[in-house]
Design goal:
about 35% helix; alpha/beta; homohexamer; Glucose Oxidase, domain 1; about 25% strand; about 240 residues; three-stranded parallel sheet; eight-stranded mixed sheet
């Protein structure tokens, strides 16, 4: 499959785009995406498990779950090292974000702490699931940004059956294609279609720099009129201020 | 893929099993499934669009949708006769039931009346979706059992992107594997794992025959004690009554 | 327990009140109840399974379910004729309505067709559940008003454990005390606290008679002003019209 | 307010557009709207109360409800003929559709049968609410298309406070501006922005005529390829067939 | 409009009431409101974004959103300094709380960090929305109590259209009239009808003083009997203790 | 009632089991329960109010709420020291966990800070409710593990009527029988059926010890293959390492 190969070879993001995406906010990025006609890029309802490490950027590596069936999803299946979940974890490469389609169901977990630790060791950039994770205390202490819909102690087999990986999926009702760029911060997680990542990163950095200037003006007491959005005079003041840096 | 081939070749159900499944109720079938440890076989929340043709039996042919993306899912994609949705419809064989994973989202439809008509012509046995269908009036008049979570006039592109077919899916939070047996009646739709279909069909027919006898007794005023479940005496009366048929 | 005994002895409703409650609408009754400070008497979300027999009046006989547990709720428990569900059904008396607290969960049924048939034979006046019933086709053909949140083929043991009867319960987030009066019609089911039933029945009959008169005026083209609510002149016309009957 | 006046004077739809909108399906109309970039025009979740009279077309007359407050929303307020709800009903003109913002709350009704009868007498074209109506049996017998999220016997005062009319509102999470064109059929209700109504009506009529032809071909056994969408040859056949009419 | 003027002139709360409302808990206040027949004064589901500044008191300044429409709600509308959202922000006066009706929808934000900063500069007392805010990290650092249903990076235009201000609204299914008193603390936000604010403030302060005394007794090991609620003896002890302060 | 007595006499857990349950994670415990066929033991959706004291173990003491009725649930009922809620609190013994069936409704609280303080003084081991608590700030400061679905300032009477205690209940859609063992940690709360507690505690301690060893290996860079689950060689390494302790 073409998509999968592309991901594997990881031509990936330019260093410049990755750098920009590591600092601009998801708020700025969604505005850039909306400007390009995309209104549904935010994975609503997912929170950061480790608040001090919630800044995340990386290519999506997708994994899909369907509901468990009592005769298929029994504890003994984990004896198989090639169980799809195990296999997926051992396929995630450096800089990638494991994105799990758990159908928004969180009565049972969709990933646990030991597998997350393995992902960290493999160089993964983060974890995103619209389900739950188990052993949340372990995640809190792990140096791997993780965004989930909740925590649940119950093993995934009670509700989920990992069926395949690297196919386009739904996560929190947003389409995620393998290789798309996932970005996370305090507001949550967004998905940037791969082909837009470079230009969105560039324009977002510019937008954010201007908005920081605007914020300073508003903090100093400037009214919205003339300031937000900036009129010609304010834009000139901005350019002047930035030229001094 | 082995599963897909198996479906294609359609060794299918024995005539006897198919005949039994065409008359026994989904209520009886779920009891047989629960007796085998399966508690989650009912696709909750789907209703019959054509109440007079709600009895349905057939092998599952699966189709999966992820959320639409505004730049990919535009009306012009339908110009492609190999668009996954069209291709899936033209792949459903005689006696099969098209089962759609629409993530339970019904703001837009997951299938329309023209495609359903094509399915009927191809000999399909039914349609099941956990999303909506459009032009419900057309479905009401169509001789094809259809179970859906609702109706919506909006074309699927506004919310859905058909991505693949004949993979295991979730439908109404039940696992459906290609080739599983879908059965529908007034209570809704259930999914019988393929390997259990023959024995479940046989045992369900027996159970239902007994329960009809019990119902007659209760209708005649018999108390539950001794009758439901039947004690030794009642079972003897049953065998005697049946031997006369 | 006092309440239980009171129900058992069934001093019940006066014939006059029962007659009135058999014809006035639930719309009128809820207005009478709101006039007495009760705003939460409607069991939202329950529909009639047998549309031609949806008029229902009777004293509540309550039954409570908690979630099933896999080791306790197995098919063999039904071998016990004193299983709480069976016992409850055999305890419902003539004119009573079986009201089931199913916690609003309808993935599995909370009652089936055979037990409902037994209730009919025992003289029950109806069934109300905030869960589902199974074999809905059977219910449709049964001469027993039944209101439920849905249909499900799955046996109650998959989700419900009947634990006791004739205790105060929640049904569709309304408090139902044993002996309260349940009334059902096209708009659904309401619960009238026992001690208010006589006066509410009387006042509702009066209100409804007046509103029928008003409706006739509006149908004849009268504007709301002066008519709804009726001013002094309209009230006089009403009395005059009624005196002729 | 300009919008309100425009509605009052009712320059309204052209006869041609109104005629077209009276026969084309909401399915066709939403496709036309999506072609113009509008993906959220369907009021999900509303059903027709009077199935035999569910075809509806008319200009929106909006009414807004906020939650009730126990001290303000008491039964005596209805003594005031200028109560906003009564006033709104007496302001709806011929051909208009009363559209109610009930915040999707249906524990209590947002309109009753007597007021609906008055609307019918005033020449209204229909009623749309994302809440409930009371005395649904009355609505079933009324010659006025009514679409609602449900039925509830409880008077609106228990949950709703009508606060104003003819302001832009939300109904079932769709923006409805006074004067927009509401169309209803078996699939439910859609809202066409006023300024697009003429062109959408025209193009929808054309689209539907073509799709009827396509449907005939599919019914006759034509495969999707070449037929749906129609290729050059099929379009020629269509034109030829239509020229004969 | 009378209400609006009254708010504008801002006769406002007495200093005494404001002082009391700044220290008593929302728990005590809702009890006082329930004692006056008001059971629905709590805006369920809203959390404080800046936990260290979650104590809030102020008059409600309302703003209403309806769903966005793709052709109206485009990024360029923000070029207009008189856009309703901007105008509302520049109309909020010192001591007021901006209360936003976002219909409980939080896929997109209903307010961002720059506008919140402007509100702070204008002397606003807080922000309440039943939708989301964007750039939550900015809010966390802002000295302005803010209660929201969640965070979302997406600009409000993707889902919301600000339509008017200072009209009665619904916020989290509670009626909020301009000028009502909004109070927030760890338990969330409540709305006190304007005309009850003075007496509720006074009685709540008294109640809370007594409950603090009771809590001390319970902490010291006193049983509920005699203590909570306090009997005559305990009330005497309370008065004695307080007389010493 | 036998169950109640058993609880009262509190033969309780062995010291060894209690010690084990005080350190093993709920994640490990649910795996042990699933291994015994129990898939629904986790009370989804409840969070710890006092994050620093979220480790909890104790026998369930159950309390049940039904919806409030305006005429029964008035503030004056609290004058009765034998009000069921007060009585239940004064019946909870040392080491027990008060588990409240609040039907998942959290618009009003199901318990307040003063009663919780009393429970602490009585030696209770914790509080679990699928509803809300009021005065959450007080709970945060209380040395009593408390798990709830949310916070609400509103007194329980506005929505709840405490009806009985020590009956089997539903809490967050899990069956809880009096005397069952409740365990809470960062992932939330689980319920262990009483008769399984000893063996589950023992096996969980063993499992957890092994998983700690596995985690160390994964942290050191070991791949999943051979490590998780451990193959024969890894198990030997584990035994060797443990023998040195």
């Amino acid at each position: 499959m073409t998509i999968e190969t592309a991901t594997a070879t990881g031509t990936g993001l330019s260093d410049q785009a990755r750098a920009a995406l590591s600092v601009v906010s998801t708020a700025t990025l969604t505005t850039q995406l909306m400007d390009r006609g995309l209104r549904n890029t935010y994975l609503e309802g997912l929170g950061a498990l480790n608040p001090n490490r919630r800044r995340m950027v990386g290519e999506a590596f997708t994994m899909r779950c369907i509901p468990a069936r009592e005769d298929l999803d029994v504890l003994s299946v984990f004896q198989d090292y090639d169980h799809p979940q195990r296999k997926a974890v051992e396929s995630v490469g450096p800089g990638a974000v494991l994105v799990i389609d758990a159908r928004g169901q969180k009565r049972a977990a969709s990933l646990g702490h030991i597998l997350a630790t393995r992902l960290l060791r493999r160089g993964a950039a983060g974890i995103v699931t619209d389900g739950a994770v188990r052993d949340a205390a372990g995640f809190e202490a792990l140096a791997l940004p993780t965004f989930a819909a909740g925590a649940s102690p119950t093993t995934n087999l009670a509700q989920h059956h990992v069926v395949d990986m690297q196919l386009p999926i739904s996560c929190a009702e947003v389409a995620v294609y393998p290789g798309d760029i996932m970005v996370g911060d305090r507001d949550g997680v967004i998905c940037i279609p791969r082909h837009l990542a470079e230009e969105v990163a560039r324009d977002a950095a510019e937008q954010e720099d201007l908005e920081e200037f605007i914020l300073e003006q508003v903090e100093s007491g400037a009214p919205l009129r003339g300031t937000y959005p900036p009129d010609a005079q304010m834009r000139q003041a901005y350019r002047k201020a930035r030229s001094k840096r």
